[in-house]
Amino acid sequence: MRALVFDRFGGPLQVREVPAPEPPPGGVVVRVAASGVCRSDWHAWQGHDPDVVLPHVPGHELAGTVEAVGAGVRRWAVGDRVTVPFVNACGNCGVCAAGEHQVCPHQTQPGFTHWGSMAELVVLQAADVNLVAVPDGLDLATAASLGCRYATAFRAVVQVGGVRAGEWVAVHGCGGVGLSAVQIAAAAGARVLAVDVSPGALELARSMGAEVVVAAAADGSTDVPAAVVEATGGGAHLSLDALGAAITCTSSVRCLRARGRHVQVGLLPPALGRPEVPMDVVLARELQVLGSHGMAAHSYPALLDLVVAGRLDPGALVTRRLSLDEAGAALAEVGSRPGIAVVTDFAAAPSS
Ligand SMILES: [Zn+2]
Ligand SMILES: [Zn+2]
What we know:
With 352 residues, this protein is of the alpha/beta class. The protein contains eleven helices and 15 strands. Helix 5 links the parallel strand 8 and strand 9 (191-196). It is globular and about 55 Å long. The structure holds zinc ion (ZN) (2 copies).
């Protein structure tokens, strides 16, 4: 099969032929129809994730059709259209028994703990626990975004953040997760304020329903918390660090009003420095500081129902469709262009 491979961290991203995988017991092989290009793939490529073993194939936001089924799989058959959360739970431990699959201590993650979906085929473990059927009428490129950024944003805003209509929601960082969060919070009836350094990203945020945008200077000189407090008449009720950086994390906590909730969504690899969380402010305002890590497969129906009903439109976030040959360049420059890029063409270009 064709796959996007890197042999060293930060090194060349090359498309080449690699052996096609076999389905493991309890798992499946999926023929990839779409694989989103996400900042987490960039972190994997940069060597920020200790799970990644070289050589490696990135990609974890995927949708496709079941190609082969391993021994013991009961719920899935060849040809089924599926997507999957980026956290693949084991399904057997106490955490899974409690329904908290997104933090299973025995989780696997395509594109991190094993080869991912920037390839024609990908292995997914514990298929009966983790696969999600893609409804008819939802195209696979849109479904791919549900596996990581959109579902992650949905859980962060709705389930962990507990958004309520009329509240002010601040979204720090308007990449894929952030734009998804803007759309989801606006659909929930919240008033949304979006922060980013990119005018293009802020324009998209407005089109997703942000009522106020704050343009932050790239050198960090903007007093974002003060701008949020001013625009919202006292601070956000709910604020998300959707980027994962020391400055966005700290700004998100500091921009909250009394009793506000901060949700950490963006990854914070320790290699990039640890944020300062102002615990004096957490104490004085009785803030809640919460983490949100993907979303379990069993939570998808609530999200899919809203998508199918037209209340949410994850497809609006897909701004570019790429071939596998273009994926390496897109991964290397992730974040430099607004919107979500999805690889949808895995065939070799015809030789001329
Ligand atoms: Zn488990
Ligand atoms: Zn992702």
